[in-house]
Amino acid sequence: MSYDIPFEIQAEIMKRLPVRSLIQFRSVSKQWKSLIDSSHFISHYSSQQQHLLARYVKLGSLHPTYLSIVDDHTFPRHRVSLTVPMPVNMPANCDIIGTSCGLLCLYSNYQKGRNGPVSGSGMAVIWNPAIRKFVAVSVRNLTFRTVLGFGVCRETADPKIVKITCKDDREDVESVVEVFTLSSRTWRNPGTNLPRKSIKLGLFGSQVVDGCLYWLATDRITTDGGFSFSNIIISFDMTSEEFREVNLPDDLSRLRGIKLSLSKVRESLVVVEDVGHGVEAIWMMDDGVSKSFTKLFTINVNTPPAQVRRFRGFRKTGEPIIEVVQHNLHGQLVVYEPDSEHVDELEIDGKKFSFSVFSYVETLLLLDQPNLIIRYRQQVT
Question: 280, 297, 210: which is closest to 246 by C-alpha?
């Protein structure tokens, strides 16, 4: 890049370069390093390079493998194995809470019992796989009713971890909400809570869409004859830190909770309905409007009846990624084309039901942070 080009134009050009090039350019000059390392450049940098992260356990192994695949016209040729940060590099004892703005949040219990963490403590790790930087955060006061979520605030580019703990199953007990922000390095009570005490969040998975965290939940409704349960979605705005309720269509609200899961395609929230016999229906929420969901398509992979199929995620093109379990009890990932119902194998094999797939973009977030472990500290009010 010529020094005859005004520095302001150089900065605009750099915003469009891939992360790998920017990391190399930091060694070219002090001026470029100062620009790239600045908090303004880091928070406003937006890469178009998208990746898929496949997590699975190889046959004959106990350790999960993390494979990053470039999700563009070359898909799935360009792939590389990743090594997770040391604080969570524990065999078969690490979950991915979620992804947001190119960051992944992993979580591991120090000890794991039959009904949840034995020690009541764990470690969450905010990880940028593109630049191999991480911040580990101690998480305390965990029970088997604790739900975690992760997202980045759009206004401040500040990563946040949300912890919601239901004391017990009684209807009159409020959940305990805590939020960790990386900028303050402390946990605090945001002063907000779930819309009603009768709402209990599902333990499996959250999604971040358009600056909000979303969880599936159930609402216990008291009736004359006793009570019933209804499926709903709870959102948490990462900026205002307020909760709100999103109603599902009647057909989905009455299903058993285990029949539903959340995902996202591009930047739209998706509800995946397990219809049965390997068939799954994909419903997309329209612009966050309550009860406004559109059924996109049904996944019906044409494989032998003895094989089991499980939805695992989406490509940026909107094509679903499916795990197919073979007769010999090993699984493999395939991409499903809804219109033709054709599948393409990704040549990724592993133990059955060990697969999960996450989408992320390249980012510079955490570049200005040292790799460190933050011990538990509550904000004093």
Answer: 210
